[in-house]
Hints:
Blueprint: E1 9-13, H1 23-40, E2 44-47, H2 61-70, E3 76-83, H3 89-102, E4 107-112, H4 119-125, H5 135-146, E5 172-176, H6 179-188, E6 192-194, H7 203-213, E7 225-233, H8 237-243, H9 245-256, H10 275-284, E8 289-291, H11 293-307, E9 311-315, H12 321-333
Parallel strand pairs: 1-2, 1-9, 2-3, 3-4, 4-5, 5-6, 6-7, 7-8, 7-9
Amino acid sequence: xxxxxxxxxxxxxxxxMRADSTVSNTLQDSLRYAQYAERLGVxxxxxxxxxxxxxxICSATSILMGFIAGGTERIRVGAxxxxxxxxxPLVVAEQFGTLASLxxxxxxxxxxxxxxxDPVTSLALNRDNQRAEHFPDEVGELQSLLGPRExxxxxxxxxxxxxxxxxxxxxIWLLGSSLFSAQLAAExxxxxxxxxxxxxxxxxxxxxxxxxxxxxxxxxDKPYVMVGLPLVxxxxxxxxxxxxxxxxxxxxxxxxxxxxxxxxxxYSMDGLWTQQEKSYVDSFLSLSICGGPATIKxxxxxxxxxxxxxxxxxxxxxxxNEHRLRALDILMSVKQ
Length: 336
């Protein structure tokens, strides 16, 4: 049996949109995608928070979570993540307390300290550009608001209660692409997610730091590591390489400051980018799991053997929705 059999597979959804589609159709496609993932036994379906990015339809993360959770039955639904500097902790606690009350035992709260946007948009979301510096304190405040009231007596905000939210104990995860959140997750005894799907540089260093410094807590007695990876799965390596050009064009648009609509695959990227841009895109996607079933299985087995992760979360941004569903079939088949 493959070493992948016992590794939960999960999905990170950015609600990618084609220029010829609509927001409504894009979100309905995301729901169908989540429902299909649930039938296949995918563990979690998380939605990212990004703003002012045409082609990525996931700015209202908690609202989309309710939409997905309401259209599914068992799969865990979460934020991957809520960018805490954009939101007062009380509002986050109330929103996720409401979700946890509507869908008990199915809601996850991943937290990040980046804005999920460009500096101008970040200013529009939050007038205090120092909020990220208070991330550790605000994580603690959020944990307190979601916990039992009797444990809040020493809190600076003990008179403020999240209704709903209080005592829902929504599981909190810390997300990061550097060492900061790895250190904080270790100190707080929280599960940690590394954003390898877009920032692979510090992966091994961050995971090693988290495991080395981990302190058991009331919510977790040993380290738990999940890593995000880009997925491009197809029946053959050649087709997967072709389909991967959709993601490559998207990252190219990102670094150029252009709109990020999903674009159809192209047979060659030659002429679409400079050598410097190619190097940047290749680095951005360097952890991509791309290929046919045998290649996907081999690459994932090597990755798990090297890093010993507890769970893997995949992005799966293909141009054709049927190809996205087919990729899930291929992904889940490699666990056998």
